[in-house]
Amino acid sequence: MTRVCFALLLAGATLCLAPPARGDADADKKEALRRGYEADQLYSKGAWDAAYDGFAAADALVHSPVFVIYMAHCRRNVGRLLEAEALYQRVAAEKLADDASAPFREAVAEARAELAKLQASIPEVKLAISGAAPAEVTLTVDGKAHPSGTVVRVDPGKHRLVATHGDQSIERVLDLSAGQQDAVELRFGALDAGEDEASDEGSYVPAIVALSLGGAGLVLGAIAGGIAASKASRVKEGCIGDSCLVADADALATAQTLADVSTVAFIVGGVGVAVGGVLLFVRPGGGPPGPTAFLGVSGSF
Length: 301
Fold this sequence. Notes:
It is built from 9 helices and 7 strands; from the N terminus they run αααααααβββββββαα. The two termini are 34 Å apart. A hairpin with a 2-residue loop joins strand 5 and strand 6 (168-176). The protein has a 4-stranded antiparallel β-sheet, with no helix packed on it. It has a 3-stranded mixed β-sheet with strand order 4-1-7, with no helix packed on it. The protein has helices at residues 3-11, 13-16, 25-44, 48-61, 65-77, 81-92, 102-121, 205-237, 249-282, and strands at residues 124-130, 138-141, 144-145, 151-153, 157-165, 168-176, 181-187.
């Protein structure tokens, strides 16, 4: 429906607007026309909410599918897609009289076409609960209850998810774009009361332990190596060529033992640091790192 069609409809409204159910027919038609023209001007300026109110007021006086389809356009333009869908459905399902005007018929045809496009752009979220019996969990999206396993259709933008099981509560905020489809699993059982679900991503403890052991190994290797080098240096001071004093045999053996300990400690320390680095990234018990991990399990469906 173009704005030209809308203007033509208003110009001929005395012939094609449906008669009001009560009151002065001519007065109501004139007032509906006036409100319709005002709403059209607001619509042309992008004042979607004010234009919606004007079209709704005009339609309340004298019904026209053109008023309603422009109400749908206004809601669509501000991202209130679910309301727009209901309005398009209302026009698409309208039963027109055999002698209905061309603009009325165009409005119904346009509503059906717009409805198909709009429905493809409405975001959807599939909700799931794990770690607790779904029947024992209260799950809400923007304050409205939904059972686990259902697909919830929402407008684009941010939405608040809250799952409550006993004294445990998980709260998440989703920011969905037009046409986005997401699957969200909220997990109970592995969390202590009040703990953020982000701990489900895995524990840092194994990484910290590995890094600590690795660091201790490197420190031990450095100390043992230093002592071994010092003892070996003192023994060599009493040697003539490759011949050393018999009295220094024990000190030389100790230096060699410390050198062996240093080598092993450096190897263990290096492995510990490497493993700790890997565990710090992977975090056992959690999913792979990524922007969807904070929701439990997220993805397209």
